[in-house]
Amino acid sequence: MASTGLSEMRTRRIICFVLPLSMILLLLYLSTNKLHVQVSECLENGRPCVEAQIDIIIHPKKNVNTDRPSDAKEDENILENALRNCQRDGFQIGKMLMSFRSCVTETGEILVGEYLNAWRELIKFMDSMGTVFIFISSETRTKINILQDYLRGKNGKSYRTISSMVQYELENEVVNFKELPPNRVPSGCRTLLRMHRALKWLEDFLYKVGTSPKEQKTSELCAESYHKTLAHHHSWFIRQVAEIAFLALPSLEEMYEVVCVKDHKEAEVVLLTTVEAIAKVYNITQEIYTNHNMLDLP
Ligand SMILES: *[C@@H]1O[C@H](CO)[C@@H](O)[C@H](O)[C@H]1NC(C)=O
């Protein structure tokens, strides 16, 4: 009895060790294919290219900004230059900034369709850092598809904004507060909550990328953000894989290339502007979920 128990334990310990290790080696292998740049294109999904919309980002209300403090003007110039000179394809920070801004309506509602678009840009961001985030980005793709199906479905109108979705799903008892039913498509509320949690992590990480000195290790920044936000929602196994996957992150200087900036100063302006747009979307969503006691949906 005792020796079977012992060898069982030994086997289990080996599995615990070998499985994460082999996943990590796979991730490291895959991440050598990172940072590949493709040819530029000007229309994506029928939307105009970044170049044409930069004006809208920099000067949202053209006639208002006559008397600006000079450092605000300087920041504007930095933002404008960084976005205009961003020739890389795949992920473009300007597109992501725009997509987060267009999530919020004038009355402060979040449009679900635009939210999904913004997430598609975030996935491009994660993918452009190699395969480090593959465990998050593939899960997020599934979640985008679930919500997109609700949006295209026969009750699609009720899914136009986050608050209309919450109202519709609560009234129709789609949301399950006790458990996740195994054989049903998860509710929109539950699905979006997962993305919402991951958004906080990326918001925090982007903030750190924008404000940390360039000697700082990205793996440490990312792990810090992860511990602060997403880690307590993950299982032990995923946490181990995440920890080690972060070690394969590109350096801060390589990240600057991904977000189309040359130096720390530019990084700060571009990333803090982006983080603010993300935080706005995050805060509104957080308020809706708090008001309906839905922050812990299973
Ligand atoms: C979001 O909420 C946090 C915490 O309440 C606050 O510090 C921050 O200024 C808010 N950001 C935006 C853009 O609303």
Automatic annotation (TrEMBL):
Tell me the Gene Ontology biological-process terms attached to this UniProt entry. Answer: negative regulation of interleukin-1 beta production
Main subcellular localisation: membrane
Q: Name one GO cellular component term.
A: cytosol
Q: Which molecular-function annotation in GO is an example for this chain? A: ceramide 1-phosphate binding
Q: Please state what the protein is called.
A: Ceramide-1-phosphate transfer protein
- Key words of the record: Lipid transport, Membrane, Transmembrane, Transmembrane helix, Transport
Keyword flag Repressor:
no
Q: Which family does it belong to?
A: Belongs to the GLTP family.
The organism that produces this protein has a lineage beginning with: Eukaryota, Metazoa, Chordata, Craniata, Vertebrata
Chain ranges of the Glycolipid transfer protein domain: 111-260
Q: Which InterPro entries match?
A: GLTP_sf, Glycolipid_transfer_prot_dom
Pfam families from the entry? GLTP (PF08718)
Q: Where in the cell is it found?
A: Endosome membrane; Golgi apparatus, trans-Golgi network membrane; Nucleus outer membrane
Catalytic activity reads: N-(9Z-octadecenoyl)-sphing-4-enine-1-phosphate(in) = N-(9Z-octadecenoyl)-sphing-4-enine-1-phosphate(out); N-(hexadecanoyl)-sphing-4-enine-1-phosphate(in) = N-(hexadecanoyl)-sphing-4-enine-1-phosphate(out)
Where is the chain membrane-spanning? 12-30
What is the role of the protein in this entry? Mediates the intracellular transfer of ceramide-1-phosphate (C1P) between organelle membranes and the cell membrane. Required for normal structure of the Golgi stacks. Can bind phosphoceramides with a variety of aliphatic chains, but has a preference for lipids with saturated C16:0 or monounsaturated C18:1 aliphatic chains, and is inefficient with phosphoceramides containing lignoceryl (C24:0). Plays a role in the regulation of the cellular levels of ceramide-1-phosphate, and thereby contributes to the regulation of phospholipase PLA2G4A activity and the release of arachidonic acid.
Q: How does it sit in the membrane?
A: Peripheral membrane protein
